[in-house]
Amino acid sequence: MSSLEGEDEQMSRSLNDIFQEGHTSLQNLDKRTDPTNSPEFQAEIRKCMKLFEDATRLVSAIGMFSSNERYEEIPTDHLKYLLLPYFLAQLTQKLCGGDRGEIVNAAEVYYTDFLKRCADYGLAEGVPQQLVKSTNGGGDAPGGEMAMLMRMAEGRNAKMQKFRQKKELQERIAELKVAMDREDINEDQQREFYVKTLKSCAMECEDDLASVAMEKQMLEFGSKMGGREEAKPPPRGPPLKPVIITRDAVQQAVYGRGYPSLPTMTVQDFYDQRVAEGIFPDPSKAPPEQKQKSLQNMTVEDDELEEIEKEKLQEADDVDYLARARRMDEFKDEVRRGDGNRHNRS
């Protein structure tokens, strides 16, 4: 196994560990009975978010997903990582304190990214196409009273169909969840569990985005009503910046235009950070004897190759090589060793 493959395997194991720790923390949050705004609860939320953010950066670093494939082409073990933006969106909405408008905007970025990704991979079944198109930058539907009535009727039918689909999905997910806890679960059951969970979350995302839009309107209305008499806001901490799945510097630039606050990392940025944290080995800190020996071997090999090449050219009476050799001899005869640019020398 090459060193690069070993690093990828180590990174993959680390990613799975980080994701599982974050998922366990997320499940524990649902079991807590203390108030959401308590310091202990908020600290656990931020800890869980940090784990999922690290997992997102790792997914980006190893280039796990491609935008030109369907979910059927994604390996079973990778499907669960598509849930990262949805988990981060839910956690972000639970944050208390700070700039609420910033929190809501960050949650909207996560939900939008998740739904668009699900649509790209063919996992947004049961989600109205109008909503999917709006997350991809589509315009509003045309107006008119008749068109509005038709949309209302379609929306009512879609809600009834969505309710039935969600119920069926949740029942099947509950059955598969029991199987997921067993050691003898097969890959087909794992895959079905992840796919149905993603489809269920994509359907929930419709309600989540509607809730975010409503809260944004309320915050905007409250800001207008507050006027100049609004109390001075408390000192702000570091800005809340969503972390979404990207693969390289090009994608980093693209997402930067769409979401100005997004901090994304290239593979080299991430690797350098992990080296600084002591997680990955630093190639520049190899044992001195090993580095010196390697350097000497490389120098000897280069010299030997150069001598062999010279002998081949001489034996073949290469015209260009012989001409260069004669010019070099003449140059050495005319220019003494040490001569050259002596400008500004005392």
Instruction: Write down the overall mean pLDDT.
Output: 75
Tell me the CATH topology of one domain: Serine Threonine Protein Phosphatase 5, Tetratricopeptide repeat
Percent helix, as a range, is 55-70%
Name of the CATH class of one domain: Mainly Alpha
- The total of beta strands comes to 0
Low-confidence regions:
248-264
What is the H level of CATH, i.e. the homologous superfamily of one domain? TAP42-like family
Structural class: mainly alpha
Kindly, what is the distance between the CA atoms of the first and last residues, rounded to a whole number of angstroms?
A: 58 Å
Q: Could you say what the CATH architecture of one domain is?
A: Alpha Horseshoe
Protein name: Putative immunoglobulin-binding protein 1
GO molecular function: protein phosphatase 2A binding
GO biological process, one term: regulation of signal transduction
Family: Belongs to the IGBP1/TAP42 family.
Question: Secondary-structure blueprint of this entry?
Answer:
Elements (H helix, E strand, L loop, with lengths): L2 H29 L7 H23 L14 H4 L4 H10 L6 H22 L7 H7 L9 H36 L6 H40 L22 H10 L8 H10 L11 H28 L3 H16 L12
List keywords for this structure.
TAP42/TAP46-like_sf; protein phosphatase 2A binding; Serine Threonine Protein Phosphatase 5, Tetratricopeptide repeat; 346 residues; Putative immunoglobulin-binding protein 1; 12 helices; TAP46-like; mainly alpha; 0% strand; elongated
